[in-house]
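QA checklist item 7 of 12: single-chain prediction sanity check.
[x] sequence parsed
[x] length recorded as 235
[x] structure emitted
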Amino acid sequence: MAKMTLLQMTQSILSALDSDPVDSIDETVEAVQVADLVKEAYFDIVSQRDWPFLFQLSQLTGLGDTNNPTKMLIPDTFNKVKWIKYNKKEVEYLTPEEFKHLIDNRAVEAGKVDANGYALNADPLYWTSYDDIYITFDGYLSTTESTLQGSKTALYGTVAPTWTHVDSFTPNIPEKFFPTLLAEAKSQAFVNLKQQSNAREERKAQRGRVIMRNEAWRNENGEIKFNSKVNYGRR
């Protein structure tokens, strides 16, 4: 099955329900209801795990705050951080407790370690987050920059799924998973709008979910890589 727009999926489901055809998702009350069910099915599917099609490479947001030179902001669009690099070098994650222990046990040294235990003479080696909003690093090279720079960061993780409720919108999932999305929405439409179950669509949806779990990655090495270690980060 090729990728489908919201209107095309709505039309397909309305046809299965033996309802009046439409040319827009807001043309009839039933079309509006069906389009809403497609949206619900999509967000239900993407909430199940960190799907590879939601992975993205981006950057942290620099604050330019000389009072907090090692603090940076995670973009609002990110749901989970997989790894961070600074100046093209990977920075290691520490739990807040481990991180605080590290900086508390550093000896203050002029030009090298400040009074709070943050390094002044090197790019960061470690990071943590105390509030799941900001990233705190363990130091910065104060001779070349007054604060850490967003342009020098690389951030990799999963972004929040988006939705535009218009006829032409195409949900962000791989083409091979559209049958699952359609089956999920169609099954729910029969229950909500016809007050009856559709065993065939329910079976298709269930099979599709199994396939999605097992074949989420187009790159066959991806599943092993990202399921083989703990993922630290947001939400």
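[x] summary fact logged: The radius of gyration is 24 Å.
[ ] second reviewer sign-off
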